[in-house]
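**Entry details**
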Amino acid sequence: MNLHHIGIACRSSSAGDRFYRDLLGLEKKRERTVPGEMIKKIFDIDQDALIIEYGNETMLLEVFVIPELEEDHPVSHLCLEVNNRVAFMEKCAAMGFGARQIPKTDGTAIVFVKDDDGNQYEIKEQP
C-alpha cells in the first residue's frame, strides 16, 4: 500500500499559494474545477470546487478551495493506493466498513471508506 495524496481544504487559492507554495516551497502542479454535483456526491458540499495540487518528488497535496468552508468540513482525507481495489472493498464489506463508490462521468468510480472514528480514505488502485 502507498500513500497517493492528502486531500485538505482552504478558503482561497491565495491562501493555498501563500502556505503551500510560498511557505512550504511546494510546486503548484495542476489546477482543475470539479462540478458541484460531484463535490455534493463525495463530500456533501453543494458547490463547485477548485482543486489545486501542490507537491514535490515525494508528496502530493490536493487542496480543495471552498470559500465558505466550515470548521467541521468533510473534505479532509488520505488517498491510499492498494494492489487490488476490488479485493480491498470486499474486505471492507466483510469487516463492516462501508466503502462508498461515487460514479464519475467517464464510467469509473471514486471510492471512499471511513474508519471507526470518521476519518476518510480515498482508495485508488496502484498503477
Notes: The chain has one domain: 2-125. The mean pLDDT is 87.
